[in-house]
């Protein structure tokens, strides 16, 4: 990568976003003027004049910017091309639906949706073409960064991160790697030889702090795998009572007013959700009952706020007595226990709808860490004590781990994602995550189950993470001894 072009990335993204919005706005303008702002729709003498048309165009553009920002549709080079096309298409569909309701309200009747449906198809086609061209230009101008990774004793964690970063070859190339045990001086030499960036993964805190300061002084980009304390400090408050800066981490979970507002949102959203989803829930219940005559619902003990146990409610997607021996068996991609009806409702997330009753009762929240089975909470807490931090708030139907993770994301990474939500909680964040949930509903990577290999890996994941924490403490002492020996 030519570093001198790096500063133009934001400019390129801004211009690309303006081009995408301009194309979609031009399509809307044509459809609005030709098919909706006409006497047949608005009524004779009630069509918009110039200013009214500009207001409609302005509202459409504002909505486009809002949804594109929400779904990350304007982040050229940040998302994969397919994800970017999906995000933009979803943004346009949402905006066009709102525009249809808006137009119907203005004309005081339900207008024909056909022009908007055709417009949506044209929008999607233009999105595919424009996104491909813009993404191609971005990759030509900003080739992938060549990075060096400094890793710790948790080898599996480093390899996992390398695989994930290498899956985005258009953005990153792990060009070199070095173990933290090589010592500060040798690591710095390797970092300086890779001015495009360094990755720090599970490096002991003392050494990591020195490397971050070196990268800052040398203006070298650094990617850091955060630990739990990093996430807690990110949400801390700046205090300037003295001439010494202080960071305040309150660590008390949600405030009373936040809990009240959140509960009000839960009641409103779950109530509306049940009203809208009731026909689909009835059809699903009938399909499950007619298939094998077994129970419609499946209830299971889960842990929520403060360790309280409640019974989560789902539509049954497996055969009756799928875990009759009491042993926890994670579902695999081709699990024979899943019924034909179960495959459909799992793929469409319909099996989760009964949890709206749990939210209405107050056992769950719409947004929050996913409530885990008691066996999982006990196991992971024994190996990773910080796993209990997820219980500072109510379990949720959706959350950070559901949106940014996968079904088979490791326990430690789930913990980090959930803590990011807890430590940065706000009503606006809840609204954003609810809207973003729409995006992931039909994304395969967010709904995939455990593969047979992953099921086995999950059994040893917590043990490896615990070992990594123990070795980090030992490594810190080792680094100090090495530095002292060099001084002597």
Total strands: the figure is 10
Q: What is the beta-strand fraction? A: 5-15%
Report the structural category: alpha/beta
User: What share of residues is helical?
Assistant: 55-70%
Give the end-to-end Cα distance, rounded to a whole number of Å.
42 Å
- Helix-strand topology string: HHHHHEHEHEHEHEEHEEHHEHEHHHHH
Number of helices: 18
Shape: globular
Largest sheet: 4 strands, parallel
Low-pLDDT parts are 447-459
Strand adjacency order, main sheet: 2-1-3-4
Radius of gyration: 26 Å
Give the mean pLDDT.
Answer: 84
Structural summary, described in words:
It is a single chain. A hairpin with a 6-residue loop joins β5 and β6. The longest helix is centred in the middle third of the chain and has 37 residues, at 256-292. With 488 residues, this protein is α/β, with parallel strands linked by helices. The chain has helices at residues 9-36, 39-42, 50-70, 81-107, 114-141, 155-166, 184-192, 205-217, 228-234, 256-292, 340-347, 355-361, 374-383, 400-404, 411-423, 427-440, 444-447, 452-487, and strands at residues 145-151, 172-179, 198-201, 222-224, 237-239, 246-248, 297-303, 309-315, 365-367, 396-398. The strands form 4 sheets. A 4-stranded parallel β-sheet has the order 2-1-3-4, sandwiched between helices.
Brief summary:
The protein is an alpha/beta fold and 488 residues long. 58% of the residues lie in helices and 10% in strands.
What is the topological layout?
Layout: H1 9-36, H2 39-42, H3 50-70, H4 81-107, H5 114-141, E1 145-151, H6 155-166, E2 172-179, H7 184-192, E3 198-201, H8 205-217, E4 222-224, H9 228-234, E5 237-239, E6 246-248, H10 256-292, E7 297-303, E8 309-315, H11 340-347, H12 355-361, E9 365-367, H13 374-383, E10 396-398, H14 400-404, H15 411-423, H16 427-440, H17 444-447, H18 452-487
Parallel strand pairs: 1-2, 1-3, 3-4, 9-10
Antiparallel strand pairs: 5-6, 7-8
Helix pairs in contact: 1-3, 1-5, 3-4, 4-5, 7-8, 9-15, 10-12
């Amino acid at each position: 990568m030519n570093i001198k072009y790096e500063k133009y990335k934001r400019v390129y993204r801004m211009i690309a976003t303006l081009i995408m919005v301009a194309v979609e706005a031009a399509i809307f303008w044509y459809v609005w003027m030709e098919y909706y702002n006409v006497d047949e729709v608005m009524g004779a003498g009630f069509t918009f004049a110039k200013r009214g048309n500009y207001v409609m165009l302005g509202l459409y553009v504002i909505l486009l910017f809002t949804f594109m920002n929400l779904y990350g549709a304007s982040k050229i080079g940040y998302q994969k091309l397919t994800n970017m096309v999906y995000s933009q298409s979803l943004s346009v569909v949402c905006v066009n639906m709102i525009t249809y309701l808006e137009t119907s309200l203005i004309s005081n009747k339900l207008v024909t949706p056909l022009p908007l449906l055709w417009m949506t198809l044209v929008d999607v086609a233009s999105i595919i073409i424009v996104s491909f061209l813009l993404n191609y230009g971005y990759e030509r101008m900003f080739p992938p960064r060549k990075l060096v990774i400094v890793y710790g004793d948790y080898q599996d964690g480093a390899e996992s991160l390398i695989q994930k970063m290498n899956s985005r070859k258009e953005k990153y190339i792990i060009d070199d790697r070095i173990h933290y045990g090589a010592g500060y001086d040798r690591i710095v030499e390797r970092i300086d030889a890779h001015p495009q960036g360094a990755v720090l993964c599970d490096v002991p805190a003392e050494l990591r702090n020195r490397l971050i300061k070196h990268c800052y002084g040398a203006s070298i980009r650094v990617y850091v795998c955060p630990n739990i304390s990093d996430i807690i400090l990110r949400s801390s408050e700046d205090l300037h009572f003295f001439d010494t800066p202080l960071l305040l981490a309150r660590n008390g979970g949600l405030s009373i007013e936040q809990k009240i507002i959140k509960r009000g949102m839960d009641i409103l959203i779950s109530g509306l959700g049940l009203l809208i989803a009731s026909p689909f829930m009835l059809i699903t219940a009938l399909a499950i009952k007619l298939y094998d005559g077994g129970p419609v619902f499946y209830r299971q003990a889960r842990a929520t706020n403060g360790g309280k146990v409640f019974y989560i409610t789902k539509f049954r997607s497996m055969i009756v007595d799928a875990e009759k021996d009491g042993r926890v068996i994670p579902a695999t991609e081709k699990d024979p226990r899943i019924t034909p009806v179960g495959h459909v409702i799992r793929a469409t997330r319909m099996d989760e709808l009964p949890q709206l009753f749990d939210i209405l009762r107050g056992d769950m929240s719409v947004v929050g860490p996913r409530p885990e089975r008691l066996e999982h909470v006990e196991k992971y807490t024994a190996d990773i004590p910080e796993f209990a931090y997820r219980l500072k708030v109510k379990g949720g139907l959706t959350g950070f781990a559901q949106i940014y993770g996968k079904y088979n994301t490791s326990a430690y990474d789930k913990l980090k994602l959930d803590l990011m939500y807890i430590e940065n909680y706000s009503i606006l964040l809840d609204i954003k995550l609810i809207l973003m949930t729409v995006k992931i509903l039909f994304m395969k990577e967010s709904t995939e189950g455990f593969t047979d290999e992953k099921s086995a890996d999950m059994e040893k994941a917590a043990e490896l993470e615990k070992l990594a924490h123990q070795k980090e403490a030992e490594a810190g002492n080792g680094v100090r001894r090495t530095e002292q020996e060099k001084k002597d």
